[in-house]
Amino acid sequence: MAKDLAADAVREMSDEKLADELKKAKGELFNLRFQSATGQLENNSRLRAVRKDIARIYTIMRERELNIGGPKVAK
Question: Span 7-66: which CATH code?
């Protein structure tokens, strides 16, 4: 499972790594929603954390697209 991503950690990632983390987070969110629907979800707070991670990634990607939010770190 993916861990909670801090904004600073997300900003340091390359574009490719961001896309990879987004894909992982979306997959985890799908699995968590499926578990929730079937009554197997043990930790409801994980849903919220994953949604916030996805939003954070999208925000950083958009900032880079608009060239705002400071210099981009290339790794």
Answer: 1.10.287.310
